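cron nightly-structures :: item 1 of 1
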Amino acid sequence: MTTHVPEDVPTLIARREARSLALHVAAVAKIAAEPGLLNKARAVLEGWAARENPVSARTRAWQELLGRPWPEVASLIGEPSQVQLRKGSPIGVLLSEEERAAIFDRFAAQSKVD
């Protein structure tokens, strides 16, 4: 049995990953401007860990990452290799609905141009 993957699927995946990266870059910028926000992301992470039994690999990876010095965290979040980590992230809660919507709108507008 062969499965046909529509030609636009890789493009859709790339756009979602780029949008996720843009959301994380915006959150990193917010934390850089207001370092106390990192504690909010850590609190979200603590909530995840409290509800999971056993604690998931994703949560453990975020615990390890957020335990590092901020400059290292900021750098790693934006790494292209961290796509899987960004798929489930405590950092996203730091953006307001308006900030998230602006990023989503920008990507929606881009996809209409492409």
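cron nightly-structures :: done
The chain has one domain: 9-113.
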